[in-house]
Automatic annotation (TrEMBL):
Protein name (database record): Type II secretion system F domain protein
GO cellular component: plasma membrane
InterPro entries: GspF/PilC, T2SS_GspF/T4SS_PilC_CS, T2SS_GspF_dom, T2SS_GspF_sf
UniProtKB keywords: Cell inner membrane, Cell membrane, Membrane, Transmembrane, Transmembrane helix, Transport
PROSITE patterns with a match to the protein in the record: T2SP_F (PS00874)
NCBIfam families for the chain: PRK10573.1
């Protein structure tokens, strides 16, 4: 028999095990891996828990069963700890709140609403679907942006390699002939000389983002600078904006359907956003609504949302169907961003191929153009 237990101290872990009437033969300490606290695992857990609740199991039984079946000892210990808290009388939302590094505030807020309304399994299903939809969208956006970045980096590497290593060899060969070089070749040779001299600087500029990344992450201003840069790049800005709007409206719709007050839903949105600029926008809307402004007016005053957003929110607020309108907006921006991400590679591929092909083709022509001139010069000398 083996198992996992969450404890801050080995001696305390031994006491907890013996208190259960178990005599451990060995006790091994495992390091906590933050990489295992991924959002995908949390959403999968919610879906499995909702299924077990619908099957008639209690929360404590469901968590114990999930703990026994989970392949990760780290998750086994966490789920077992939550099951113990439930057995001691704590609600699931409170048990989740004890693990903020694992469960974002949206999780305990939604679960708390489910506990209050008696629709816990329904809230778990909605939460799992919302999180899975956001994960699929984030993966698609990342995949769409990865392709052009890889192509550009490869093109830059080829150009630097040709200008820094290949062209200088051709230059040495051409210098043995006392024949004037074509203008294009002279221009490329000058570029090659410059690249050769500035190669350490160019290599440093290319590698600097990777080397400075830890420092930039520790800087409090870097997330703001990053957000400002992304908002000024047309295609990236559209993708990022669609992803953020889909996330905001999906979380708000989920909160409304679960019976969470709108202000608390805005707080959940704010804590789940990675972009500081959007967190600031949501905080402004929260403060405006708290002061008595209509919801649609607060969204309009923020200046960050489209007329479609403001119109549908106003309609939903007036008709009492705000949750449905928020869900419609979430689906609209989700589909729009999926469509843009699907088409991004198809739109950029011919442009990137044309640009990189043109640059590399120019370099190749510049290298071999003197060969034809040398042939003409030799033919002219032979005729003379």
């Amino acid at each position: 028999m083996h198992g996992a237990l969450w404890s801050t101290d080995k001696a305390l872990a031994m006491q907890d095990i013996q208190r259960e009437g178990i005599i451990p033969l060995s006790l091994k300490r495992d390091a906590v891996k933050a990489s295992l606290w991924r959002s995908q695992h949390c959403s999968d857990l919610m879906q499995q828990l909702a299924t077990l609740l619908q099957a008639g199991l209690t929360l404590s039984e469901g968590l114990t069963l999930l703990s026994e079946q989970h392949p990760s000892a780290q998750w086994q210990a966490l789920l077992q700890d939550m099951a113990v808290r439930l057995a001691q009388g704590s609600p699931l939302s409170e048990a989740m709140s004890e693990w903020p590094e694992v469960f974002p505030p949206l999780y305990p807020a939604t679960i708390r609403a489910g506990e209050m309304t008696g629709r816990l399994e329904h809230c778990c299903f909605h939460l799992a679907r919302q999180q899975q939809a956001q994960q699929r969208l984030a993966q698609k956006v990342a995949k769409a942006l990865r392709y052009p970045l890889v192509v550009i980096l490869l093109a830059v590497a080829v150009i630097i390699g040709m200008c820094g290593f290949v062209l200088p060899e051709f230059a040495q060969i051409y210098r043995t002939f006392n024949t004037p070089l074509p203008t294009l070749t002279r221009m490329v040779m000058a570029l090659s000389v410059w690249v050769e001299r500035a190669f350490p600087l160019l290599a440093g500029l290319i590698l600097s983002p990777l080397l400075l990344r830890p420092l930039m992450r520790r800087s409090g201003r870097w997330p703001w600078w990053k957000a400002a840069i992304l908002r000024r790049i047309p295609v990236l800005a559209a993708l990022r904006r669609g992803q953020m709007l889909s996330h905001i409206f999906m979380v708000l719709a989920l909160s409304q359907r679960a019976g969470v007050p709108f202000l608390q839903g805005l707080e959940s949105v704010e804590t789940t956003l990675s972009c500081p600029w959007w967190r600031h926008v949501i905080r402004q809307i929260h403060d405006a609504v708290a002061q008595g402004k209509p919801i649609w007016q607060a969204f309009e005053d923020s200046g960050a949302f489209t007329p479609l957003c403001r119109q549908l929110i106003r309609t939903g607020e007036t008709s009492g169907a705000l949750d449905a309108m928020l869900e419609n907006l979430a689906h609209y921006y989700d589909e729009q961003t999926h469509h843009l991400a699907d088409n991004l590679a198809a739109l950029l591929e011919p442009v990137l191929l044309a640009v990189t092909g043109g640059i590399i083709g120019t370099l190749v022509v510049a290298m071999y153009l003197p060969v034809f001139h040398l042939g003409d010069a030799i033919s002219g000398a032979g005729m003379g």
